[in-house]
Amino acid sequence: MSWLYEHQIIDSEVNGKIDVFRYFGRWQIKVGDAYLTAEYTKRKFKRVISELPPEFKANSILVLGSGGGSCFDPIYQRFSDSEILGIEYDLSMIELMFKLNFTSNPLRPQILHGDVKNILPFLKKRFDLIIVDLFFGRHLAPAVYEGWFFPTLNSHLNGEGLLLMNFFQDKNETGLPCKEFLHEKTIHHVYNTLGLYRKKPKRIVI
User: Fold this and answer.
1) pLDDT digits (tens, 9 = 90+) for 195-206
2) How far apart are CA 139 and CA 49, in angstroms?
3) Of 181, 173, 195, nearest to 152 (Cα)?
4) How confident is the model at residue 129 (pLDDT cuts 50, 70, 90)?
5) H or E stretch at 78
6) How many CB atoms sit inside 10 A of residue 40's CB?
7) Is 76 helix (H, G, I), strand (E, B) or coil?
8) Is the pLDDT assigned to residue 59 strictly greater than 70?
9) Other CB atoms closer than 10 Å to residue 143's CB: what's the count?
10) Which domains does the chain have, with CATH numbers?
11) Does the pLDDT value for residue 88 go beyond 80?
């Protein structure tokens, strides 16, 4: 193995060919023309997490579409003692995340392997922060358009919790969660558009 440059190709049943590169000791994961784990994606998550309210605390965090794990170190930098649960469809991505040590925090996230529609509705836990990073290629995964998705997210979010959703280049879809959530702000980071949301207040019936 070379610290300066190395290239591996991993065969994935989900993503086909996964290109794994190391430049000057830093690993990157690429599928097609999209980088799923790279310095850019780490900077993106660091930037958007910095946009969360300074008083906001998250002890339990759910990540849908954890991929190669580029979100985890930025999360731990802000919420150092948090318990993180990730859901990832591609087993090869999970194996790469732990093999290449994309998260340096000793707590290490728990990752569930499978389709989000077969896992999320059956979780018993609620979370302070939910991060949605679900894609099929460069576009949002079909699951986010299904009627069960956002109501189920809502049921797993604590009362003062926040939802952070990456739309990547589907920037016109930031209204999708708004039947269930209040749109707090839109965050732009180079190629990515992300939305920050919170739960709607409960209606009081008199």
Assistant:
1) 999 998 876 555
2) 22
3) 181
4) very high
5) helix 72-78
6) 15
7) helix
8) yes
9) 19
10) 38-199 (3.40.50.150)
11) yes
Residue in this structure with the two tokens 């926040």, named with its chain if needed: 162
Q: Mean pLDDT lowest for which of 11-15, 140-144, 166-170?
A: 11-15
More confident residue, 74 or 157: 157
CA-wise closest residue to 75 among 98, 106, 42: 42
pTM of the model: 0.87
What one-character DSSP code corresponds to residue 90?
-
Phi/psi at 170 (5° precision): -85, 55
Partners of residue 129 on adjacent β-strands: 61, 162
Which sign does the torsion angle of CA 164, 52, 154, 186 carry?
A: negative
* CA–CA gap between residue 135 and residue 146 (Å, rounded): 14
In whole angstroms, give the CA distance from residue 203 to residue 206.
10
Structure tokens at 108: 């290490």
Question: 149-164: per-residue pLDDT in tens?
Answer: 999 999 999 999 999 9
Instruction: Calculate the average pLDDT of the chain.
Output: 86
Q: Could you tell me if 87 and 125 are in contact, meaning their C-beta atoms sit under 8 angstroms apart?
A: no
**pLDDT given at position 73:** 87
For residue 19, the one-letter residue type is D
Cα of 92 vs its chain's centroid, Å: 17
Please, what sign has the CA dihedral across residues 62, 64, 161, 156?
negative
- What's the chain's length in residues? 206
